[in-house]
Amino acid sequence: MAVAVQEPTTNVDFVTEAVLAAYRSHVDDAHEMALAEFLDSPVEVGATRAIVAKKARMVEIVLDGDTHIEALTEVAWELDERSWLFNVLVSLDRLGEAHTDLRGAPCTLQGWWFDEDAVRFTGFERP
Asked: Cα separation of 64 and 90, whole Å?
């Protein structure tokens, strides 16, 4: 007998779905995958979920509260070499930390928060 196990939905899940919905509304073929499926990445961030939008040539990562942001510097440079854009989405309480840890890296940052039942985003910022 098989038993279905349902994982609880996390904040990262909600934000990821909002980002994917935005791409779908622009008719872009975006897919969610582990970062390591898209490029060689440092071990500590390889399992991080990434949203890859081929038409926009954009990779977006929604970070949880435990991910070491500084480890994404290498990812930013690798994507830049491939002429892909890179956006790191962090909760508002980690936005300052992201600016510090990714300063000078070729990427953008975007804060997110919840307003009632909706996910809201800041504009794109350069670290």
From this structure: 7
**Phi, psi (5° rounding) for residue 94?**
-110, 5
Sheet with 49-53: strands ordered across: 30-34, 49-53, 58-62, 85-91, 108-115, 118-121
* Cα 78 to Cα 35: distance, rounded to the nearest angstrom: 12
Rounded Cα gap, residues 55 and 29, in angstroms: 7
The pLDDT tens digits for 8-57 are 778 889 999 999 999 989 888 899 999 989 888 777 778 888 999 999 99
Pure H helices in the chain? 11-25, 35-38, 43-46, 72-81, 95-101
The answer to whether 98 and 69 are in contact (CB under 8 A) is yes
Q: What is the pLDDT of residues 55-75, one digit of tens each?
A: 999 999 999 888 889 999 999
SS3 content of the chain, % helix, strand, coil (to 5): 35, 30, 35
**pTM of the predicted protein model:** 0.88
| 23 alpha-carbon distance from chain centroid | 13
